[in-house]
Amino acid sequence: MPARSELFDAYALQGRDSTRVRMNFVSSADGAVTLGGRSGALGGVTDRALMQVLRAMADVVLVGAGTVRAEGYGDLRVRAEDVEWRRAHGLEDQPALAVVSGGLHLDPGDPVFAEAVRRPVVVTTDAAANARGALFEPVATVLACGLEVVDLGMVLEAFARRGWTQVLCEGGPHLFGALLADGLVDEVCVTVAPRFVGGDAGRIVQGAAEGDRRFALAGVVTDDEGFAFLRYTAG
Ligand SMILES: NC(=O)c1ccc[n+]([C@@H]2O[C@H](COP(=O)([O-])OP(=O)(O)OC[C@H]3O[C@@H](n4cnc5c(N)ncnc54)[C@H](OP(=O)(O)O)[C@@H]3O)[C@@H](O)[C@H]2O)c1
Asked: In whole angstroms, what is the distance from residue 208 CA to residue 173 CA?
């Protein structure tokens, strides 16, 4: 397994001044985004270590409500050694968490709120914030960006005003599709698991119209379990 320091080096950020959206996904070698309905079953030891490293570098972890509902996002706390790394780099001890939901049909009692180490942000529309935002005020900050549809560009601007420029998006596929369609993705980290699962699992991008969006291969790391960790950067 690559050392953590090797992962920090391989995924080092160029700077923190401008907004940068980094996606992180795991996929089987035949393109499945889940095994048994969850992504965790596809991953491995290095994948989990990389997820921690990427979280350690992030100002905010962004996820879609579908991922929260499917994966049961609980406490995302980074470990003590990563807190040290963050302090040394002038960051808050823990990254923030932001959940995107158009309809706000989330449970305010969900572990994503109840176990949060920092008060999470729920990103939604003006319409949903007016209708259901008050339910979440005790457990999260409601951020309305867009009248009837979440405007993801507006979301990133709102993050930047909070000083959150390094955005780690952990999915899911529909949120990835929306960010990609809006031209807002700077980097894609894909773990390719040495598994061929078949079935009818979806791909890591859903909902975006077909397009020849070219990214450059910026890095490849492998481990002794046969996983490949690919890093792509936009334009
Ligand atoms: N392999 C991996 O690395 C990986 C990573 C993440 C997730 N997954 C898997 O992906 C599956 C979930 O897929 P998914 O596509 O449903 O996940 P998703 O993108 O996290 O969730 C979709 C939901 O998020 C909200 N959302 C996403 N984009 C939005 C936008 N642009 N504007 C407004 N709301 C938006 C909506 O919530 P509301 O319905 O509340 O309006 C939408 O229904 C799960 O099985 C999960 O395990 C795999």
From this structure: 9
Number of domains comprising the chain: 2
Nearest CA to ligand 1 atom 7: 172
pLDDT per position as a tens digit, 179-227: 999 999 999 999 999 999 999 999 999 999 999 999 999 999 999 999 9
Q: Would you say residue 6 lies in a domain?
A: no
Alpha helices (H) along the chain: 4-10, 45-57, 65-71, 80-88, 111-114, 126-136, 152-161, 173-181
**Residue 123 DSSP SS3:** strand
Ligand 1 binding pocket includes 195 (Cβ within 6 Å): no
pTM: 0.98
Q: Are residues 95 and 38 in the same domain?
A: no
Q: How many CA atoms lie within 13 A of 155 on its CB side?
A: 35
Residue with tokens 């309305």: 144
65 C-beta closer than 6 A to ligand 1: yes
Query: Ligand 1 centroid vs 176 CA: distance in angstroms?
Result: 8
Q: What is the pLDDT of residue 107?
A: 95
Q: Is the CB of 132 under 6 A from ligand 1?
A: no
Domain limits at 198? Answer: 18-59+178-206+224-235
- The per-residue pLDDT for range 137-154, each reduced to its tens digit, is 999 999 999 999 999 999
**What rounded mean pLDDT belongs to the chain?**
96
User: Is 163 a pocket residue for ligand 1 (Cβ < 6 Å)?
Assistant: no
